[in-house]
Amino acid sequence: MRATALALLLVALLAPPAFAQDGRALFEQGCATCHGDGAQGRRGVAPTLHGAGAQSADFYLETGRMPLANPTDEPVRTKPAYTAAQRRALTRYIASLGGPEIPQVTPERGSLADGQELFASHCAGCHQIQAQGGVVPDAVAPPLQDATAVQIAEAVRVGPYVMPAFPESQIDRHELDSIARYVLSTHHPDDRGGWGIGHIGPIPEGMIAWLLAGAALLIVAQLLGERRPA
Amino acid sequence: MRRLWRAIVVLVAVVFGRRTRAEPPPEPPSLEEGVPFERETGAAPRVELVAAALLVASAVPALVFAAGVLAGAGTQLLGAGLGAALLLIGAALAVGANRIVPRERAIEDRPQLGDPEARAEVRQRLGMVGEGVSRRRLLGAAGLTAGAALTAAVVAPVTALGPAVGDSIVDTPWKRGRRLVGEDGKPLTAEDVAPGTFVTAFPEGADKRELGSPVVLVHEDPVTLRLPPGRADWAPEGIMAFSKICTHAGCAVALYRHPKYEPTSYPPGLACPCHYSVFDTRTGGRVVAGPAGRPLPQLPIEIGEDRVLRAAGGFSGPIGPSWWGVRKA
């Protein structure tokens, strides 16, 4: 079983040029059921992909959000269904239908402090300040712990599912660098206080403080109340 | 987390368990053995001075706290002040209890408690409580000082309440013709509010921190709008402005749910991250979910010839959180 899997993996790794597939053919097989022939979209099921561009295609395919088993499900991050070569081919095909390019982002050029401020005002309402994710009415705002800089930039511009989109007029390229830098910094937070406690904000911290203080008080009360041996 | 909890439970069990097992209940003392009544009095005047000094000293950090609250000092200083005051009062009480108050050891003469003689004796004994305390007035004054200072420390935070809301919920900075500016103070044009985005805006030249100032701008397809009667021209090209202050508890309405593809997700809505009140933008801010009791007030806007967004009047209702059960717009 394991040997077979390994062999398959080897073949998959060594063979991409041989299997380099036509994006359009892949699309007709895996995506056209919902997005329609020629990616025109199907009314009430899935939108047209003309104008979506490499920006959306790369985001949805690289994060495993597409293909979706049921069109009414919320797309969430999973293991990509296609190989890297297939994803590239599909993205090339969608890009050929027109739409924005994959956004340029260089987190190193951004400022961490600005990034946190921008993230707090634009993103933290749903994704929570440590980018651990949260809820919006009727949907889940995903944690951003696995997101790459490019995927962060794509999501900001695309506005996937019920997330609003943030065009260049609202978050410019430099600000996007800063936001990406901040989000990447939350992947390895330096917990100056010691315990991170899940990085989900002040509630667990308060809870722990109460527990520890309560235990300490119990011990003190016990020591005070103990009788001195006669 | 689970291990920590288990450790605490085990610790508590060990401490209590040891106690209950180790100590048999003490036998009641009998009248024959020991002295039935013993009294130690006479605190050294020095000790009373120490207690008084501690009490007076406690007034200093307590007053520092009170002054700190009024002067807006840092929380670290405030905590240290109040902590030091309580600590010093505690030390004074400990000294007093151990060294000043007369110590008695009495073995109760149960059977005789009912008779008048014993009652007289108890009354007499109670009358002797002050015996051996030579500087009562000093201690009283010191205690009063400490109490007054601590009271001041406890009462001072009351000044943190307010300021009064006044007319700011009805009288907002928005007036007809006032331009909408972004956080950077630059006027916003219709092009700045692309469909699917939401933008926070303020009245030009007004205080951004005022409750009535911030609005959120959203852009919906004009065909889908079903605004209440009388608001037909409030949303030119589908651009709408709503107060950013939630009508439930006054949080900032910071969430905008905008579907990428509506048939398979949800209609657009503005949501408050505090308690998840959701307001339907297409029907002029109607509450569709959550605890908010009245719609989000809408601000009529118009697009000038220069494409700059301007207010076309005041809000559709009082802004800010609902108070005393107000449920009408």
The count of strands of chain B amounts to 13
Average of per-residue pLDDT values of chain A: 86
CATH topology of the largest domain in chain A: Cytochrome Bc1 Complex, Chain D, domain 2
- General form of chain B: elongated
Shape of chain A: elongated
Number of E-state strands of chain A: 2
**Which class do the helix and strand fractions of chain A yield?**
mainly alpha
Q: Quickly give the CATH architecture of the domain at 180-311 in chain B.
A: 3-layer Sandwich
Described by strand count, sense and barrel closure, the largest sheet of chain A is: 2 strands, antiparallel
- Helix content class of chain B: 25-40%
List keywords for this structure.
heterodimer; A: 230 residues; mainly alpha; Cytochrome Bc1 Complex, Chain D, domain 2; 2 strands; 3% strand; elongated; B: 329 residues; Rieske Iron-sulfur Protein; 5-stranded antiparallel sheet; 4-stranded antiparallel sheet; 5 helices
SSE layout and pairings?
The complex is a heterodimer of chains A (230) and B (329).
Chain A: H1 2-14, H2 16-19, H3 23-30, H4 32-35, H5 53-62, H6 84-95, H7 112-122, H8 124-127, E1 134-136, E2 139-141, H9 149-158, H10 173-185, H11 202-225
Antiparallel strand pairs in A: 1-2
Helix pairs in contact in A: 3-6, 5-6, 5-9, 7-10, 9-10
Chain B: H1 2-22, E1 37-40, H2 45-71, H3 75-100, E2 103-106, H4 116-126, H5 136-155, E3 180-181, E4 198-203, E5 215-219, E6 239-243, E7 255-257, E8 269-271, E9 278-280, E10 286-289, E11 298-299, E12 301-303, E13 309-311
Antiparallel strand pairs in B: 1-2, 3-4, 4-5, 5-6, 6-11, 7-8, 8-9, 9-10, 12-13
Helix pairs in contact in B: 2-3, 2-5
What does this structure look like?
The complex is a heterodimer of chains A (230) and B (329). With 230 residues, chain A is mostly helical. Chain A folds into three domains: 2-95, Orthogonal Bundle (Cytochrome Bc1 Complex, Chain D, domain 2), CATH 1.10.760; 107-185, Cytochrome Bc1 Complex, Chain D, domain 2 (Orthogonal Bundle); 203-227. Helices cover 49% and strands 3% of the residues of chain A. Chain A is built from eleven helices and two strands; from the N terminus they run ααααααααββααα. Chain A has helices at residues 2-14, 16-19, 23-30, 32-35, 53-62, 84-95, 112-122, 124-127, 149-158, 173-185, 202-225, and strands at 134-136, 139-141. In chain A, strands 1-2 form a two-stranded antiparallel ribbon. In chain A, strand 1 and strand 2 (139-141) form a beta hairpin. The N and C termini of chain A lie far apart (74 Å). Chain B is an alpha+beta fold. Among the domains of chain B are: 2-17 and 35-105, no CATH class; 180-311, Rieske [2Fe-2S] iron-sulphur domain (Rieske Iron-sulfur Protein), CATH 2.102.10. Helix content of chain B is 32%, strand content 14%. Chain B contains five helices and 13 strands. Chain B has a five-stranded antiparallel beta sheet, with no helix packed on it. Chain B has a four-stranded antiparallel beta sheet with strand order 7-8-9-10, with no helix packed on it. A two-stranded antiparallel sheet of chain B has the order 1-2. In chain B, strand 12 and strand 13 (309-311) form a beta hairpin. Chain B is elongated and about 100 Å long. The interface between A and B is large, with 36 and 38 residues.
